[in-house]
Amino acid sequence: MDDKFGMACELLKDITVVKEEKEGEVTKSFLRKVYELLEEAEGKEEYIISVGYMVARRKSKNTVEFFIRLRGTVEKLQGDWSKVREELKSLLEHAIKIYYIKAEIGEDLCMKR
User: Fold this and answer.
1) Which of 18, 58, 73, 82 is most buried, by the most CB atoms less than 10 A from its CB?
2) Are 22 and 90 spatial neighbours (Cβ–Cβ below 8 Å)?
3) Nearest to residue 88, comparing CAs of 76, 98, 102?
């Protein structure tokens, strides 16, 4: 899984970008929280449960879709948790940047591929 940009685009595929913070939607703060949960989790399962719980509490079509894609990505990554965590950090950093650019500038970098 070398193409972090492509993987980040896949996570954000068909996700409606909202400029203002909106509870229950995939927003900039939602993505940052998903990223922060990586530091708190002690393994893949704990991470998926933490993100899943966060999504379930304030679910929307977009957050559920994002969670399903994220879970699939996590399950595909091989190695010990520290290696998987670093790969996920890189992937989520790309996703956050792509989302910010689309929300603030209106430029969809994923469509330019």
Assistant:
1) 73
2) no
3) 76
**If DSSP codes are grouped into helix, strand and coil, which group holds residue 108?**
coil
What confidence score (pLDDT) does residue 8 get?
95
For residue 40, how many C-alpha atoms fall within 13 Å in the half-sphere facing its CB?
Answer: 11
pTM exceeds 0.85: yes
- Per-residue pLDDT, averaged over 60-64, amounts to 93
Domain count along the chain: 1
Inter-CA distances, 29 with 55, 85, 100, 106, Å: 13, 20, 10, 18
As given in the structure block, the two tokens for residue 57 are 């509490």
Q: Is residue 54 part of a domain?
A: yes
Give the burial string for 63-92 (b: 16+ CB within 10 Å, else e).
bebbbebbbebbeebeeebeebbebbeebb
The helix (H) or strand (E) run that includes residue 77 is none
Across 47-70, average pLDDT: 95
